[in-house]
Fold this protein.
Amino acid sequence: MSTINPPKALLFDVFGTLVDWRTTVTQTLSTQAALALNSPSASVPTSVRLFASTISWPDFAQQWHDTYKTFTSSQFSSSPGRSSSSPGRSKHPFKTTDQHHHDSLLHLLHTHCLTGLWSADQLLAIAQIWHFIDPWPDTSTALHELSKSFILCTLSNTNVSSLRDLAHHADLPFSRLLSSEHFGAYKPSPLVYNGAAEHLGLRNEQCALVSAQLSDLRAARHCGFQTIYIERVDEEDWSVDEVREARREGWVDMWIEVEDGRGSAVGGLAEVKGRFKSGYVAGRGWGDAIKG
């Protein structure tokens, strides 16, 4: 993080970084399953009842989220579907994450022999849970503080309508809601990062991406963004060795750990706020803000 030129805008990944999708999605699936199985008016096949009684909804939620990551990554694959004239943009029609979440839910239910557990209308409603994920405890308060000093903007692979609902549901004070949907491509396509900076009227180096995914930050770094890594439990896809190597290489400008050296939780985004605030208030430029 530049001590002379701190970022003007903080752009945020959302799922996992700002909101705790795992808890909300698991609770929703479990609750809706119990309602369906105990409803006197529901006609759930006996075989489905049997499989539903043994399913691990936390595992199912993880698999559902994994399909989202696979889906967005596949749009940036080096397959023949990519256009050489527009790096990172697929030739295939753009599919929204709302469409994906519904389609992948149907597929997973079929895979686990759970087709028929919910009606078509119920399935549509359950797929919409990704619009109403609860935030991490530190998120809202820290963002309100950061909004006093920075332009706050989403930069997520989820679609705009989902971001709008999430911001309202979780009290996230963004001045802009930017989605991959705006650029017809998914992260880690350079089209997304470059397009976001252009949309904000800023140079890339005036933007910092905040994310709990090192792959996201590496792509942003390659586009000239500053980078802030928030450790969140079970959110990093890289191996322990890969994470250690990334930290040793030093290309992450600010690294926020889950715990400090005494084992006390430091609060994620609250720590980002604290590092910027301490550097500014103490009159030392942004020196404390760059320690990671």
